[in-house]
Amino acid sequence: MTISDTEQPTKPFQPFKKIVFPEGIVLESGKKLVPLEVAYETYGHLSPERDNAILICHALTGDQFVTGINPISNRLGWWNRMVGPDLPIDTKRYFVICMNVLGGCMGTTGPKSPRNPENKEELWGVNFPSITIGDMVNTQRMVIDHLGIQTLFAVIGGSMGGMLALEWSVRYPDRVYATIPIATSSFHSAQNIAFNEVGRQAIFSDPNWKDGYYWRYGVLPENGLAVARMMAHITYLSEEALNHKFGRRLQKNAAASSFPIFGEMFQVESYLHYQGSNFVRRFDANSYVTISRAMDWFDLSQAYNGNLVEAFAKVQSRFCVISFSSDWLFPTSRSRSIVQALNRVAANVSFVEIESAKGHDAFLLDEPDLDRTIRGFLSGIAEQRQLKSYAS
Amino acid sequence: MRLDQELIVSLINPYSRVLDIGSGDGTLIDHLSRHRKCDARGIELDMSLVTQAVAKGLPVIQGNADFDLKNYPTKGFDYVVLSRTLQAVNRPKEVLQQIMRIGRHGIVSFPNFGHWFPRMQLLFGGRMPMNKVWSTQWYETPNIHPCTMMDFVDLCQQEHYEIKQWLAINDKGGKAPWKRSLYLANIFGEQALFLLSNRN
Question: Which residue pairs from B172-179 have beta carbons closer than 8 angstroms and sit at least 24 positions apart in sequence?
Answer without folding.
Answer: B172/B3, B173/B2, B173/B3, B173/B4, B173/B7, B174/B3, B175/B7
